[in-house]
UniProtKB/TrEMBL annotation:
Belongs to the FtsQ/DivIB family. FtsQ subfamily. Essential cell division protein. Residues 1-18 have a biased composition (Basic residues). It is found in: Cell inner membrane; Membrane. Residues 1-25 are annotated as: Disordered. Residues 81-159 form the POTRA domain. The gene is ftsQ. InterPro entries: Cell_div_FtsQ/DivIB_C, FtsQ, FtsQ_C_sf, POTRA, POTRA_FtsQ_type. It comes from Sphingomonas lutea. This is Cell division protein FtsQ. PANTHER family: CELL DIVISION PROTEIN FTSQ. Signal peptide: none annotated. It is a single-pass type II membrane protein.
């Protein structure tokens, strides 16, 4: 029996397996949307943006852009591009001195900024002039433009006065939309319908539509009182007052019926003090007891 040679230590040992961690990491890195080179590039861009932001803040803090603009404007002024005068067009009823003050204030500011006797064209802020002008009631719109070589043109679009508004003892002009235009002295009242009462100016557009629906009565209107912020009392040149119901549609219907009756029967101009149309389908008439007598509120009306 042959001797068997037995190798000590048993069978051949398997080689230890290397860790696959590095391979996995590299694989993940290859699959990431941002690799190392791209990340480095992004970091560089971010740093550059940061430096630019700091530079911008420093420039603004030192007023460098504005100084450069002022320097350029002053240089153009020395070259002859200055404002030597201005022209105002479209002005009718508004006080010219108001426009003069707005324009000269801006011209003085521009000249002071440039350190010159005359304001350079580029330093005159035409938008600021327009903004101040449209803040006045008379001005519906304004256009400010430069006319070379040395003139500003201020084109005013005025609002048109449509009525007088009396409230708390103050008399003012208003346009068709109720915008307050200017104060008016009692001694200098224009021939316009008079609106009376708090908030009456805001209802002037409604009143305009109402009176436009009765063209035979419109020229005879003397004043309109906004009662309780909800309805109108209309006073006519012949002395009568018409009390209208609340609501534009109801008021228009009642006034339309009254206008038809007036055309057929001549209701106005006969000495009636008051026509009350507030109750649908009824007209309450208040008459004076004697010619020239005024009926007071505590005397009973007559119905028809």
């Amino acid at each position: 029996m042959s001797a068997a040679h037995v190798r000590r230590g048993g069978g051949a040992r398997a080689k230890p397996r290397k860790s696959s961690g590095n391979a996995v990491s590299k694989k993940i890195a290859r699959n990431l949307p941002v690799n190392e080179a791209r990340a480095s590039k992004l970091a560089g861009l971010a740093f550059t943006g940061f430096l630019l932001a700091i530079a911008f803040v420093v420039l603004v803090a030192l007023d460098i852009p504005a100084k450069a603009e002022r320097s350029a404007g002053a240089a153009l002024g020395r070259a002859g591009f200055v404002v030597s005068g201005y022209q105002i067009v479209g002005l009718d009823k508004m006080d010219r001195r108001i426009v003069d003050r707005v324009v000269t204030d801006e011209l003085a500011r521009a000249a002071e900024t440039a350190g010159a006797g005359k304001p350079p064209q580029p330093l005159v802020d035409v938008a600021a002039i327009r903004e101040r002008l449209i803040g006045f009631g008379w001005v519906k719109d304004a256009r400010v433009s430069r006319r070379l070589p040395d003139t500003l043109v201020i084109d005013i679009v005025e609002r048109k006065p449509a009525a007088l508004w009396q409230d708390s003892g103050q008399l003012t002009l208003v346009d068709a939309e109720g915008v307050v235009l200017d104060k008016v002295a009692i001694s200098n009242m224009p021939d316009l319908p008079l609106l009376i009462g708090q908030g009456a100016n805001a209802q002037s557009k409604e009143l305009g539509r109402l009176m436009a629906s009765v063209p035979t009565l419109q020229p005879q209107l003397a004043s309109a009182t906004w009662v309780g912020r909800r309805r109108w009392d209309l006073s006519f040149q012949s002395g009568e007052t018409i009390a209208l119901p609340e609501g534009e549609q109801a008021a228009r219907a009642a006034l339309g019926k009254f206008a038809k009756l007036d055309r057929s029967n001549g209701l106005l101009g006969r000495g009636v003090v008051r026509f009350d149309l507030r109750i649908p389908g009824k007209m309450i008439v208040r008459l004076p007891r004697a010619p020239g007598e005024t009926i007071t509120g505590d005397q009973p009306p007559q119905q028809s």
